[in-house]
Design goal:
With about 60 residues, this protein is α+β, with helices and mostly antiparallel strands. The protein contains three helices and three strands. Strand 1 and strand 2 form a beta hairpin. The chain starts with a helix and ends with a helix.
């Protein structure tokens, strides 16, 4: 639940989320480590950048 709160996926997106879809990257603007989530939307892949609080929970 904390991961969902800090990343903001829809419930169906969170249900289908796999370990290979998450990458921890450094945000070039803030300098913080954030999770970058690869989300499948319809037939396209979108990238969701999240809050830094989700790194510890992940």
């Amino acid at each position: 639940m904390l991961f969902m709160r800090n990343t903001g996926p829809w419930p169906d997106e969170a249900k289908n989320l796999q370990h290979q879809d998450v990458a921890i990257v450094t945000d070039p603007y803030a300098g913080e480590r954030i999770p970058e989530i690869e989300v499948l939307v319809m037939i396209d892949v979108c990238y969701c950048k999240s809050m830094s609080g989700a790194v510890n929970v992940y």
